[in-house]
Design brief:
- Helices cover 6% and strands 51% of the residues.
- It has 72 residues and is mainly β.
- It has a five-stranded mixed β-sheet, with no helix packed on it.
- The longest helix has 4 residues, at 62-65.
């Protein structure tokens, strides 16, 4: 078992006890967000830091696209 700590840039995201370590360039899903493993660093014998890059979330404006649904 490995203690795996997930980070996005310098932001702490999650830690898990895993049997298998994620590989670099592996697709991963954490807290409902899709991401890709950028790097894996070994800190101690069973402690690893995994750096993840998440996909950007694009917000859509439905009201601006449909003029029939305007406020009155």
């Amino acid at each position: 078992m490995f203690a795996v700590h997930f980070y996005e840039n310098k932001t702490y995201v999650l830690n898990q006890a895993l049997r298998n370590l994620p590989a670099v360039d592996e697709e991963i899903r954490i807290k409902g967000r899709k991401g890709k493993v950028v790097s894996v660093e070994a800190m101690e014998e069973n402690k690893y830091f995994v750096y993840v890059e998440f996909e950007k979330i694009v917000a859509k404006k439905a009201d601006a696209l449909d003029p029939k649904k305007r406020k009155r």
